[in-house]
TrEMBL record:
Catalytic activity entry: a UDP-3-O-[(3R)-3-hydroxyacyl]-alpha-D-glucosamine + a (3R)-hydroxyacyl-[ACP] = a UDP-2-N,3-O-bis[(3R)-3-hydroxyacyl]-alpha-D-glucosamine + holo-[ACP] + H(+)
Family to which the UniProt record says this protein belongs: Belongs to the transferase hexapeptide repeat family. LpxD subfamily.
Keywords assigned: Acyltransferase, Lipid A biosynthesis, Lipid biosynthesis, Lipid metabolism, Repeat, Transferase
This enzyme's EC code(s): 2.3.1.191
Pathway: Bacterial outer membrane biogenesis; LPS lipid A biosynthesis
Active site as annotated: 241
Name of the molecule in the record: UDP-3-O-acylglucosamine N-acyltransferase
Encoding gene, per UniProt annotation: lpxD
HAMAP family, alphabetized: LpxD
Annotated PANTHER family: UDP-3-O-ACYLGLUCOSAMINE N-ACYLTRANSFERASE (PTHR43378), UDP-3-O-ACYLGLUCOSAMINE N-ACYLTRANSFERASE 1, MITOCHONDRIAL-RELATED (PTHR43378:SF2)
Organism domain of life: Bacteria
Subunit structure as annotated in this protein's UniProt entry: Homotrimer.
Gene source species: Galbibacter pacificus
C-alpha cells in the first residue's frame, strides 16, 4: 500500500516542502528512517536526525525552521504528533477494511445485522443477537445469545462476548478478551463446601470503550457491570462482578478490581494495581503502579504504595524506608555501647 506526499498532505491538511510525488509504503522512527518510509518530528531533541534520516517523508510542525539542506520531503502541520496519530488511524482503517461474511460462519436465524458488516470465518453468533452498521468481527470470535452490538465496533479474533452483554458504538475489543463470564461468587454451606451463587446480570460497555487483549470483565451477580463512555483498558486486566468504571478513566495492564467497587471519571490507574471490593474511588484520582487500594478514595487524590498512601506522604516515608538498615545498625551499636 503506497501513499504519495500529496495524498498524505491532503489527509492532514499540510504544506509540502519538497517532492510532492515521492511515495511511502511503511512507517519508521526518524533515527531509523529508510527510503520509502514515513516518519515524524515532534520532540525537539530528535531534531538532528532530520538532517540524516533516509525517510522519504517527514511530518513536522509548522514552526520548524530549516538550518541545513536535507533529503527528506517535509509535510508541515499544526501538530506533528497529533497528525501522525491521525495518519496511523487512517492507515489502520484502510488496512483493516473488510466487508462481507466469510464461510464457514454460524449465524442464528433470529440474529440480525446492519450494513457494511464483516464477519470472519469460524465465528459463532447466537440467538437474538443485534449487530449495528460498520461492525467488523474477525475470525474465531464468539457472540452469545441476546448480545447487542452498536455501530462501528471492532471485535478482534478470539474474543468471547457472553450472553446478554451490551456493547456500545465505536468500541474496540481485542483478541482473547472475555466479556460477561461469571463473577467469582461462591457461598460456603454447612459442610464447608463452596456452592456457586448464580450470576444473572450482564456487562454493559458504553460508547468508545477500548478493551485490551486478554482482559476479562465479569457479569454482575444482579444488575450490570458497567464500563462507562470513553474508558480505555490495557491488556490483561481483571474487572470483577458489579464493578462500575467512570467515563474516560484509563487503566494499565495487570490491574485487578474486586467486586462492586465504583471508580470515578477521568482517573488514571497504573499497572499491577490491586483494588479491593465494595469501595468508592472518586473522580480524577491517580494511582501509581503496583499500589494496593484498600479504602475509599476522595476526588483528586494521588496515591502510591501498598497499602497506598498519599503520593507526597509516600515519598517522604520512602526516605526513611530505604535508610532502615542504617538505622538498625545505629541502634545495635548503641545497645552494644551500654
Amino acid at each position: 500500500m503506497k501513499f504519495t506526499a500529496t495524498q498524505i498532505a491532503g489527509i492532514l491538511e499540510g504544506e509540502i516542502i519538497g517532492n510532492p510525488e515521492v511515495e511511502v509504503s511503511k512507517l519508521s522512527k526518524i533515527e531509523e528512517g529508510t527510503e520509502g518510509s514515513l516518519t515524524f518530528l515532534a520532540n525537539p531533541k530528535y531534531t538532528p536526525y532530520i538532517y540524516s534520516t533516509k525517510a522519504s517523508i517527514t511530518i513536522v510542525n509548522k514552526s520548524f525552521k530549516l538550518e541545513h539542506e536535507l533529503s527528506t520531503t517535509l509535510i508541515k502541520v499544526e501538530d506533528a504528533y497529533k497528525s501522525f496519530s491521525k495518519l496511523l488511524e487512517y492507515y489502520n482503517q484502510v488496512k483493516l477494511h473488510k466487508v462481507g461474511i466469510e464461510q464457514p460462519v454460524f449465524l442464528a436465524e433470529s440474529s440480525n445485522y446492519g450494513e457494511n458488516i464483516y464477519i470472519g470465518a469460524f465465528t459463532y453468533i447466537g440467538e437474538n443477537v443485534k449487530i449495528g452498521n460498520n461492525v467488523k468481527i474477525y475470525p474465531n470470535a464468539y457472540i452469545g445469545d441476546n448480545v447487542t452490538i452498536g455501530n462501528n465496533v471492532v471485535i478482534f479474533s478470539g474474543a468471547k462476548i457472553y450472553s446478554e452483554s451490551i456493547v456500545g458504538n465505536g468500541c474496540v475489543i481485542h483478541s482473547g478478551c472475555v466479556i460477561g463470564a461469571d463473577g467469582f461468587g461462591f457461598s460456603p454451606n454447612e459442610n464447608g463446601e463452596f456452592q456457586k451463587v448464580p450470576q444473572t446480570g450482564n456487562v454493559i460497555l458504553e460508547d468508545h470503550v477500548d478493551v485490551g487483549a486478554g482482559t476479562t470483565i465479569d457479569r454482575a451477580t444482579l444488575g450490570s457491570t458497567i464500563i462507562r463512555k470513553g474508558v480505555k483498558l490495557d491488556n490483561q486486566i481483571q474487572i470483577a462482578h458489579n464493578v462500575e468504571i467512570g467515563e474516560n478513566t484509563v487503566i494499565a495492564a495487570q490491574t485487578g478490581i474486586a467486586g462492586s467497587t465504583k471508580i470515578g471519571k477521568n482517573c488514571m490507574i497504573g499497572g499491577q494495581v490491586g483494588i479491593v471490593g465494595h469501595i468508592i474511588i472518586g473522580d480524577r484520582v491517580k494511582i501509581q503502579a503496583q499500589s494496593g487500594i484498600g479504602r475509599n478514595v476522595k476526588d483528586d487524590e494521588t496515591l502510591q504504595g501498598s497499602p497506598a498512601l498519599n503520593y507526597g506522604d509516600y515519598n517522604k516515608s520512602y526516605v526513611h524506608f530505604k535508610n532502615l538498615p542504617k538505622l538498625v545498625d545505629k541502634i545495635n551499636q548503641l545497645d552494644k555501647s551500654k
